[in-house]
Amino acid sequence: MSMNLSKRSGGKGQKLPYRTLLAIPLGLLAAAGCSGGGSSGAPNTRAAGASALYAKGDQAYQSGDRVAAIKDLEAAVAADPKMLMARERLGDAYKDVGRYEDAMVEYRELARLDPYGPTSYYKLGVTQQLLGRLEPAAENYQKSLKLDSREWRSRMNLGLVRLAQGKVDEAVKATKLATEAAPKEADAWSNYGVALDAGGNPADAEQAYRMALTLAANQPGTMLNLSQSLLAQKKYDQVLPVVAEVVKIEDSTMARRIYGDALKGQGKTAEADEQYKKAEALRGK
Question: How many C-beta atoms lie closer than 10 Å to residue 68's C-beta?
């Protein structure tokens, strides 16, 4: 997810945008039951209808049909406003189609109905971060962490917020804590590397990116960031095989520019110029 771009000094490449984690699993929240009371059996009927609508909407969501999912999930929430699973999934569907304000409404209501669930605050923070509302996003990540200090996604995204605010030391601290909370999560290590790079520490950033790639190989974004860290350290011979692999997976202007910078660093001016020409040809594609 593109959040920001910052030029690395001394090269033609740009720093790859850091990524806000958006692969959000559905929270382990139980349905809160139906509203209303009485002995007529009507609430149970409404609950059954809401459950059926939720199941249909969730199936549509899982299949990738966000339009159908939103229709059924909206109906499920209307039938049972206290069904947490339906509200959460509806918020997810809104977010996926860029309806961030609508997503926030659902996540806020989710937090009101279940104030001790860290997931709702995390997801609320994500939507606010996507809208550029950085401090409110940070506050919700912090609420999530107060409820569950192991919520590594909130920890990591809090670091990315601080990075966007120019608070590099805080960003490094938060993203490092994310790797400690989730040492087997590639995204945590990759974003820790971005924070380290921003702090002018390419050697440690290199190690973080390598750890990320050990956990999840062939990730072009992480590989490009690794290439730029190696480039900053003038490890040109190590840049070339990494970026050569990147262009096989996902060719891009950025990859070709880094390729050219590494060749130029080795004194191979003609070969570097060829890569720069390929970079220009890819611009806008």
Answer: 16
Type of residue numbered 199: G
**pLDDT (tens digit, 9 = 90+) per residue, 238-278?**
999 999 999 999 999 999 999 999 999 999 999 999 999 99
Rounded distance between C-alpha atoms, residue 47 and residue 179, angstroms: 41
Please give the model's pTM, rounded to 2 decimal places.
0.81
Those residues with Cβ within 8 angstroms of residue 137's Cβ, 6 or more apart along the chain or in another chain: 125, 126, 128, 129, 157, 161
Neighbours of 89 (CB within 10 A): 27
DSSP state of 29: -
C-alpha distance from residue 97 to each of 18, 65, 100, 144 (Å): 21, 11, 8, 24
